[in-house]
Write a structure and sequence with these properties.
- The chain is an alpha/beta fold.
- The chain is built from twelve helices and eight strands.
- It has helices spanning 16-29, 46-52, 79-85, 95-100, 105-115, 130-134, 138-149, 155-158, 179-197, 199-202, 215-222, 239-246, and strands spanning 5-9, 36-40, 58-62, 89-92, 121-126, 162-165, 206-210, 229-232.
- Strands 1-2-3-4-5-6-7-8 form an eight-stranded parallel barrel, surrounded by six helices.
- Helix 11 links the parallel strand 7 and strand 8 (229-232).
- Helix 7 crosses helix 9 (179-197) and helix 11 runs parallel beside helix 12 (239-246).
- One of its GO terms (biological process) is gluconeogenesis.
Length: 248
């Protein structure tokens, strides 16, 4: 049985003081649940959130990482730096990283391999643009991303992977893939994993949907058979909204 997993992606929002205020309010709202929960926050907030959520089941994730152990990479953060803080998850290959910061399937692959050397679980983001969907290339694009991103990664590591399907046209736009569209792509991702690694491995991989997930649509999305969770953007910035999604 895959345990549902709801993760918030704060993107470039919240100062340290704002993050602590969020954590204090969210801890009051949070209750024991069968749903795995995490906040993926800016680097400057990670240590404060780990301290604020100590003693709870709420996990903390980073939004990016470099694949090198150390070196002349100004502005970057290494896996060991995240491990020292106690980070639980790390987003890799988000479409905004791919679009604005030159992330490629090759660098995503290197980051995944580096993360799999330690305890931090990667959340791999894949998804197509509106132009690619309208050209009937969505499955080719997503399938190609998965195959390239997982090149040379063995089955034992893939079992620990979280994949977030985020159609680029639904991120921060207010548009959401219909539950049927999201289910269709998540089922395709599962099928691709079966082809690459077999059914036993595929059955253990958590597949999330991300893209304008809100309290109003979370239940319908989460009730789909192949969708195991959600990567939540804007709604994760408000404790009450985020808790409503977790309570789907």
């Amino acid at each position: 049985m895959r345990i549902p997993f709801i993760a918030g992606n704060w993107k470039m929002f919240k100062t340290k003081a704002e993050a602590i205020a969020f954590a204090e309010e969210f801890r009051e709202l949070y209750k024991d649940t069968d749903v795995q929960t995490a906040i993926c926050a800016p680097f400057t907030n990670l240590e404060a959130l780990k301290e604020a959520f100590a003693g709870t089941e709420i996990k903390v994730g980073a939004q990016n990482v470099h694949f090198a152990d150390e070196g002349a990479f100004t502005g970057e953060i290494s896996v060991s730096m995240l491990e020292e803080i106690g980070v639980d998850f790390c987003i890799v290959g988000h479409s905004e990283r791919r679009q604005y910061f030159g992330e490629t399937d090759e660098t995503v692959n290197k980051k995944l391999k580096k993360l799999f050397e330690g305890p931090i679980r990667p959340i791999l983001c894949v998804g197509e643009s509106l132009e690619e969907r309208d050209a009937d290339k969505a499955f080719d694009v997503v399938g190609g991303q998965i195959k390239a991103d997982l090149e040379g990664i063995d089955a034992a590591d893939v079992k620990k992977l979280v994949i977030a399907y985020e159609p680029i046209w639904a991120i921060g736009t207010g548009r959401t893939a219909t539950p049927d569209q999201a289910e269709e792509m998540c089922a395709f991702i599962r099928k691709t994993l079966i082809e690459l690694y077999g059914e036993e491995v595929s059955d253990e991989v958590i597949i999330q949907y991300g893209g304008s997930v809100k309290p109003a649509n979370a239940t319908e999305i989460m009730n789909m058979d192949e969708i195991d969770g959600a990567l939540v953007g804007g709604a994760s910035l408000k404790p009450k909204d985020f808790m409503e999604i977790i309570d789907f």
